[in-house]
Amino acid sequence: MKWEVVIGLETHTQLGTAAKIFSGASTAFGAAPNSQATAVDLALPGVLPVLNKGAVDRAIRFGLAVDGTINQRSVFARKNYFYPDLPKGYQISQFEIPIVAGGSLAIVTPQGEKTVNLTRAHLEEDAGKSLHEDFHGMSGIDLNRAGTPLLEIVSEPEMRSAVEAVAYAKTLRGLVRWIGISDGNMQQGSFRCDANVSVRPAGATQLGTRCEIKNLNSFRFLEKAIDFEVRRQIELIEDGGTVVQETRLYDPDRDETRSMRSKEDAQDYRYFPDPDLPPLIIDDAWIARIRVELPELPAAMRTRWATQYGLSAYDAAALTTSRELAAYFEDAVAALPTSGSADAKTLANWVLGEVAASVNRAEIEMQEVPVSAAQLARLIARIGDATISAKMAKDVFGSMWAGEHGGDADAIIAAKGLAQISDAAAIEAIVEEVIHANAATVADYKAGRMKAFNSLVGQVMQASQGKANPVQVQAALQRRLAQYGWPINGRDDPDGAKS
Amino acid sequence: MLTGTIAELAQALRAKRFSCVELTTDVLHRVGRAQPVLNTFITIDAEGAIAQARVADNALLRGDAGPLTGIPIAHKDILMTAGLKTTCGSRMLAQFVAPYDAFVVAGLREAGTVLIGKTNMDEFAMGSSNETSWFGPVRNPWNTDYVPGGSSGGSAAAVAARLLPATTGTDTGGSIRQPAALTGVCGLKPTYGSCSRYGLVAFASSLDQAGPFAQTAEDCGVMLNAMAGHDARDSTSLPRPREDYTRLLRENAGAMPLTGMRIGLPKEYFGEGIDSDVASAMQAALAEFRQLGATMVDVELPHANLSVPVYYVIAPAEASSNLSRFDGVRYGHRAEHYDGLSDMYKKTRAQGFGDEVKRRILVGTYVLSHGYYDAYYLKAQQVRRLIADDFTRAYQRCDVIMGPTVPTPAFKLGDKIDDPVQMYLNDMFTIAANLTGAPAISIPCGFDNTGVPIGLQIQGHYFSEANLLRVAHRFQQATNWHLRSPAEFLRHVSGETVTS
Asked: In chain B, what residues touch A272 (CB-CB under 8 Å)?
């Protein structure tokens, strides 16, 4: 039987406010345990939550970025359960009325573009951390993270493969970083995904029973966990079993998901509106203020680049994975002396190729790239106007990266004498020289050996120290050999000779 | 015996008739003598009180004294007091020392009051008789076989026994007004949001409000002036400018100072179930108000009879969540022996909470649970709105609403403790003000045939505290119910015989 995979993601994004969502404590990562917990975070008797408007700003920014509806009246609710790292015995979240409803996210996979609809995004506070090691049979509680603002973003179950789920997660992470609401740091837990996975016979309209895989904190784990879970569910059904709705955990060491708790064990969270917090009212002016602050969004940029520079959807998507990368590309394009799309495409290839590879090798951030966008543009211009070949440009780029001659491409080309010889007279003089110095090879060519032509090209290039324009060299050689009365043998066309 | 109203004591202190240290020493002496009989206090801070009294004496000496400088007070033990135990009358917090001051505590501290200690109360403010306290019941100074009401029983009894001129309480369903009525003192519940709840250990967050106890309406106003105000740490605190709640008391009043005042009388407050002595006291009080120039208007509160059931859904629901933080993990009681986390929770909470608290946590958990939420909690919130609408409509026809604070006077210890429903009915007239958020005051207006006091409740629309205090003040200028004190008990406290 053919199976269809159905995936929805719930993503907890830590909002980058300096203070927690309901207390003034710092949200900085990595401080000594419990050093960033105020009376409110400790849930001492008598303390009360006060909403951090910075968290609301960021939620609105997200809602606008995904073209969702900003609910101008949303309600904080208490989600009640007991756990030592949940000091109040309830988590303040939003339940019936979230701050953002709907919206969508355009993702690009090798299979093409797709729009994933969002169900909602709501504000909530994070819990603390339970530490089960190093306490001699006891557990340690660190409440530094308790009260950290989170935006939980819930997608519709519209992804059909692990690859799509990863593309969604990557696009979403790119977006929250793009609009500056989160650092999206997955290692530090600032961006965590829960995946709801089910399978159904292809063509079925009803959803299969889903399992929720919790706390996937890398794209690789997300993909592997979904792949495992899909295989598990299909095998289970094909063996005559049924999928039980449950929460599962992914174990990266064994590459498998394991049952954590079944639906029967599911807690009744007894949600009710938090009487300590009045409904959150957001007026038009608040939304308008956030809208003005919003940068051009990656999706809009991709569309613009496709028409303006003729970039493919895939390249445009790759260039808009981060605002820094996109800005680098855009700055470089602006610095190009020509406005043609040919150079822009070359530039895109360079940014995604040479620049990205160098960034990865050096393990640095885009902001730290030693070659400025303008400098890169000048290099690309030299390829475009045939001053240097693409191959030489890579060497020049290496020198620029190393900071030689202030990273100036022209200075490096001049200093190293790398400028391509495109002067027809100069090339013909070298051709002339080579023909005379290689009578035997010319004879071979006369005898119809096309290899001999390539050899002559090589000789000319060598004589010019690689600087002669290879296209001009070939044309000049052909012309000159013909003039000398040795017509090109019709058996091999010149194009074949080149290859 | 250095007793009197705030106004009298403040004047005496200024006139140097006695120092604040002398006053405080006298208060501590009487508090100590009363304690074995009444059990009004959970914590008495003699040392701290004397130190504060010295500070007050210096201020008085400098001529830098406000209306509350040097006035000895006590806080209900549900208000956080930095450095002092704050137990909420519970084993759960029996050893808990507050690390900070509640907003109202800080306000009264800054006003120069001298904090004598923390008063006894029903556990986590759940009770109407002060019998649910882990620290034992409080007794009514008018008759020590009787309860003082609750949950702020200690604070009410302390003022009634003239141990202190004023104390604080909190009122979630009547916990200031009901004990005020049962002990013959004044107790004011302000408009929700007037006094920040920061540092008030939450019972039912949407209902809780702190307020004062005192002998007179005027003193209640002086206390409220120091307790009210906006506080950014409480999101339900109202951003209103400070006001002088005593401002209408100084108006030049003629012989009929309440001329033009329309008093609303809901028939629901004068029907079945009202004790006959209470009913007579009401009629006498209303006659007095007529004498003062007020007119009577019949009003309807058709949903009034739903107040108790609505309250006993909403309050336990919020309490069940609010009390979740008492889990033995970070502070408070933790069971000594347990086997794993779940067992620690169960034993800690089973030991830490008393029966009434457990009853309400169970009810609250039930009404919020999946499948019952709509039928109970949501429905209760809808009816709550209807009740509020009743009052808004009534206030189009009248300025204040009057009736008995409690349908029956004080009862004997043990009489109702095993019958929660009978106990809950004590709050049938007080609960509405908490559900709507409007202010209400209880003032003494008589005694029943056994000699225990009867309270008159005056309710008003939102932010009408100053007017409520004016109405009560004019009544008190014309009557002397508020000046009556339990003479026999006072003789015991000041005198030689020890009867406990």
From this structure: 317, 321, 368, 373, 377
Q: Are A270 and B369 within 8 A, CB to CB?
A: yes
Closest CB to A84: pick one of B205, B321, B329: B329
Encoded tokens for A345: 């495409």
Cβ contacts of A46 on chain B, cutoff 8 Å:
79-80, 86, 98, 100, 102, 197-202
pLDDT in tens, A376-409: 999 998 888 878 888 889 999 999 999 999 999 9
Question: Which phi and psi (to 5°) does residue B109 adopt?
Answer: -65, -50
Q: How far, in Å, CA of A232 to CA of A126, rounded? A: 31
B62-100: per-residue pLDDT in tens? 999 999 999 999 999 999 999 999 999 999 999 999 999
Indicate which CATH number applies to the domain containing A430. 1.10.10.410
> Would you call A428 exposed, middle or buried from its count of C-beta atoms within 10 A (0-12, 13-18, 19+)?
middle
Q: How far apart are CA A405 and CA B107, in angstroms?
A: 70
In sequence order, what are the residues at sequence separation of 6 or more whose Cβ sits closer than 8 angstroms to the Cβ of residue A231? none
A485, A491, A492, A493: CA torsion to nearest 10 = 80
Residue ranges making up the domain that contains B488: 1-239+255-500
Question: Could you tell me the CATH number of the domain that includes residue B288?
Answer: 3.90.1300.10
The number of folded domains in chain B is 1
Q: Which two tokens stand for residue B359?
A: 């009853």
Q: What gap in Å lies between CA B177 and CA B405, rounded to an integer?
A: 7
Instruction: Tell me the residue ranges of DSSP E strands in A228-306.
Output: 246-251, 256-262, 272-273, 280-281
Neighbours of A450 (CB within 10 A): 19
Long-range contacts of the stretch B11-14 (C-beta < 8 A, 24+): B13/B56, B13/B60, B13/B65, B13/B69, B13/B70, B14/B60, B14/B65
Give yes or no for residue A110 having a pLDDT over 90.
no
- Cβ(B119)–Cβ(B167) below 8 Å: yes
Burial of residue A363, with CB atoms counted within 10 A of its CB: 0-12 exposed, 13-18 middle, 19 or more buried: exposed
Range of the domain at A316: 296-415
